[in-house]
Each structure stands twice: as structure tokens, then as C-alpha cells.
Amino acid sequence: MSTVTRVTLVQNVPTGAPMLNDFKVETAPAPVEASLNANELIIRPLYLSCDPYMRGRLTGSGDRYPIDGLGVGIGDVVTGGMFKWESKFSLWRQATQEASYVNLIGALGMPGFTGYVGLVTLCQPKKGETVLVSAASGAVGQIVVQLAKARGLRVVATAGSDDKVEYVKSLGADVAFNYKTCGSFAKAIRQAAPEGVDIFFDNVGGEFLDATLNCMKPFGRIAECGMISQYNATSETAYHIRNLSQMINKKLTMYGYIVSDYYAKPAYKDFISEVAGLENAPQALLDLFEGSNFGKRVIKVASRGQKL
């Protein structure tokens, strides 16, 4: 059994877009069986998740999130699923069940459920309505496209390359366009949805959200899932929404939500973008903000059956 573990660390809090030199991968002493408590075990992960929301955790702003559960005892599990980017670590034993392990961090995991909650639970789509999905080739967007088609919606999708446009069409999108080459966002949206948009599932925010507000139908619904265009923005470079008055004029409803407030597991096809090696984890994260990622990105740390 190896006596060292490899771990990805943040050595500089990023300002704006993260850089490779903000991270480092180093070795550290690995947990050993003799040091474990009675209810601990050693884990060697096969895959680690890599998602845009992780940029929001690289803020250096201290304790941003409330810790729920006053009165929990030492060893009680308060939350699970948030592990270090490390090749070996220890954790408290929890009951689990066999599943398709890669998809547990894709369609069956947080991205799949995020799409389901935003589209189905919050926006309550009706057959025949038009839904616009931004960043439709990403981890969440690709699920939303399929969910919408399964419920009889007309799907308009956007993506950042011609290959991605073809991919979302293969998932069932009725119309898809490349937002990087379409010119005017508002003109492209109106051309794709001339009668207007009933539901906007937004993963992008910024200028695209602003343009879409003008293209919504009265009583339209917006699921504000993410704002990847703004994650690396500073107070000086952040985009300021100009068309917010359309929320009043068109009687729109916008839902902001955190998926951990809900829980279920829909099973839909997703595309896994696999990066091999913990040493490539920082670049895998940076790629999410440079438009070079397809679907759900994961980091392969080890193979099944590989010894600890």
C-alpha cells in the first residue's frame, strides 16, 4: 500500500480568471490503516468531479456558507460528496449501493438533478411551449435539452462551437445556434423563436441573459442556474443588466436556486469528458471557462481494481 497521496492545492486565490500557477499538485503522507478511527475507511477515488461552480469557492472570503445542524456530534455526517482533489483519503463509513459510478457525477448526480429541478420543478413546463437553453452542451444544459424534449417542448439551444451545436441537435434540440458567431444575441433568439420564449434555462447570465429578457413571452419563467460568463468577472468588468424592467413589463418570474435544497435522481444520457491524471486537474478546471469542454468533465484518478 502506498504511503503517499497526491493532492491538488490552491496556492493563490484567483483574481478574475484562474491561472495554472494558482494551483499546485504535491505529495503528502497518505492515511494508513493503523491511524484510522473505528468508523473510518481509506478511499482511493476513481473519478473526481470538475464543475464551473467550483470557481465560486476560490474566493478566499472565509465562511460563506451556513453550517446546518446544531447539536450534531463528533463523527456525525453533516454533508457528503464534497471531497478533496486527492488520490487517497480517509472518510467516515456510510452505507452505499452499486451504481454506474461515472454517471453518478453526471446525469445521475448533481448536474442531472440541477437540470431537473430548474426546468421541471420550478418552471413547470407545458407541452408545446418554447424553452431556450444557454450553454446547452454543458453538464447541465445537455440534460435540460433532453428533459424538455421528453415533455413535448420546442427546444432552442445555444452553444459555443459548431461541433457543440451539432451535438445538442443530436440530443433533440429543434433549433441551435453558435452564440460566438451569431452576431446579435437578441436577433438570433428572435429568429429561432419568433413567437417568443416561454422558459429560459440560463447557465450563462450577463449579456445573453440581458438580450433574452427582451425576447420572453408575457408570464415567462426563467431558471437562473448559473452565470458562467460572470464567474471570473471583477466589480469593474461585471456585466450590468439593462433590461431588468422587462421582469415587470412582461410579468416574468425568475427562479434562483441551489440544487442541494432538493433531491431526486433522473436518468438521462450525458456526455462524459474524461481527463486522465490528478496532475491535469487544474487545467481541466480552467478549460471550463475557455469554451473547450464538452458535457460533464471528470478527472480520472485510478482504475477499478487498482491497488491502494
TrEMBL record:
Molecular function GO terms recorded: oxidoreductase activity, acting on the CH-CH group of donors, NAD or NADP as acceptor
Family annotation (Pfam families): ADH_N_2 (PF16884), ADH_zinc_N (PF00107)
Domain Enoyl reductase (ER) stretches: 18-299
Keywords noted in UniProt: Oxidoreductase
CDD domains the UniProt entry points to: PGDH
InterPro entries: ADH-like_C (IPR013149), ADH_N_2 (IPR041694), ER (IPR020843), GroES-like_sf (IPR011032), MDR_fam (IPR045010), NAD(P)-bd_dom_sf (IPR036291)
Stored Gene3D superfamilies: Medium-chain alcohol dehydrogenases, catalytic domain (3.90.180.10), NAD(P)-binding Rossmann-like Domain (3.40.50.720)
Record-given protein name: NAD(P)-binding protein
Organism: Linderina pennispora
